[in-house]
Inverse folding.
């Protein structure tokens, strides 16, 4: 099962990812977690020591070498097959790839660097031996590129705010253009049933899962430790979401 987590920046995509990953591991699955956010911190939420993890998007020498950059020219199909074995972080049945995303400030073109990341992401998504949870960059542009057309499920994380829900609507339309039928809303950081009702009314659908605000998760995150053992109720919600997708 390949799951992509999307949504507006700041809605808690990585938090939801972490609990889904833990729920899959608890079900005895082997999991590949991919962090493709420009500011990746999924490793820390999962209990990895992120002090020695450099996102591939920041490995400039590697990106230049693999892209074959020569002025305005670069390799459209760079070699990436060896990178997972070299750069993947492992913890039991969990494998983690921290891609990051290219953030181009000022002038210049990041096309060559993005070609490497895109090829690597596509290669990772071909894995048949693991369930995959993909923490995507914020917004909808990555969907427009069609880089996640091979996933089985898209989960759009929303909070009970109009900006979050407007982005969710755009993601919904892009995903349907890509013929991805298994698309669900996940409500996050809800305070009460009124928040859930607002999300349902705005989205026109019932969320596949609802995560309420958790002081335990907030405390764990502030202390820089794995959040996935902090709140058993959130883990149970994640497990229920996985079960529903498995039945789809």
């Amino acid at each position: 099962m390949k799951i992509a987590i999307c949504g507006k920046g700041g809605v808690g995509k990585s938090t939801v990812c972490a609990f889904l990953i833990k729920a899959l591991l608890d079900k005895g699955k082997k999991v590949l977690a991919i962090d493709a956010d420009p500011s990746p911190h999924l490793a820390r939420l999962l209990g990895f020591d992120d002090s020695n993890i450099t996102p591939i998007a920041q490995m400039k020498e590697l990106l230049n070498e693999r892209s074959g950059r020569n002025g305005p020219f670069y390799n459209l199909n760079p070699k990436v097959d060896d990178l997972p074995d070299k750069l993947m972080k492992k913890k039991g049945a969990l494998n983690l790839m921290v891609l990051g995303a290219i953030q181009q400030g000022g002038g210049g073109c990041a096309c060559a660097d993005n070609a490497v990341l895109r090829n690597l992401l596509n290669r990772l998504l071909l894995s048949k031996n693991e369930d995959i949870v993909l923490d995507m960059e914020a917004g909808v542009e990555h969907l427009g590129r069609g880089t996640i057309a091979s996933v089985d499920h898209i989960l759009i994380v929303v909070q009970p705010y109009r900006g979050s829900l407007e982005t969710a609507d755009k993601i919904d339309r892009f995903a349907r253009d890509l013929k991805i039928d298994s698309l669900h809303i996940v409500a996050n950081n809800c305070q009460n049933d009124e928040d859930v009702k607002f999300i349902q009314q705005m989205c026109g659908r019932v969320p596949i899962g609802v995560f309420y605000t958790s002081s335990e998760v907030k405390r764990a995150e502030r202390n820089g430790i794995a959040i996935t053992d902090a709140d058993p109720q959130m883990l149970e919600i994640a497990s229920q979401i996985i079960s529903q997708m498995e039945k789809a």
Observations:
- The beta strands are 2-6, 31-35, 89-91, 94-98, 131-135, 153-158, 183-190, 209-212.
- The chain has a mean pLDDT of 90.
